[in-house]
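Annex B. Sample input.
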Amino acid sequence: MRIKHGMILAAGLGKRMSPITLKTPKPLIKLGEKSLLERAIHLLIDHGVEEIAINVHHLADQIKNFININKKKYKAKFIISDEQSFLLDTGGGIFQATRSFREPFIAANPDTLWNKGYSNELKILEDLYFKEKKTCLLLVNKNLSFDNSFKGDFNLNKNIVSRGDKNELIFTGLQILDQGAFNFTKDKIFSMNKVWDRLIKNKSLLGIQSKQKFYHLNSKEIYDRISILKIIH
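Annex B, continued. Sample output.
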């Protein structure tokens, strides 16, 4: 069984990427031959996703134009969730963009440099979701992060996610969930941390650990350092 729906979070301001993001929204920044958004789209479509929701805010028209120009070459339907009036934060943004999804979906943050190496890990994450029917995160040890400033978000023990005073794992930006994850709140603007913390309290947030080197476009400095690497195609 394969998940047919996906969502890409593309509404961030990208302030730490300034001055690039003064004229270009962060998801459309290119590294190598592809933009961050293209890499996220390819990850989802290569997995079999047929419908992709994308939320937009900063320089939204550029992202909308990119989708309109390129949608014919992608074998997927696109939904634009417009947050130009006000930002809904990560949780609110995902909830709003995926309201029409009646099945589980993959949510991806395009700040991570997604590549084909993640395809098998996404399949393992999907298998875990369908086995347990619980929200699942793809995590990575902070020792595998190109950017060594990350302090860690979570810990993992037998696929159960937790948080503590010392956290060894970083959230890669890839998760599988469904609309049921938001049933506990009527807020419109909220972080995914509110959802995750509730699930952690109930020991119902699951995860697997990625083995990929983790490249995450966190700042202009990291962009400059990654840009000169020969690994980016």
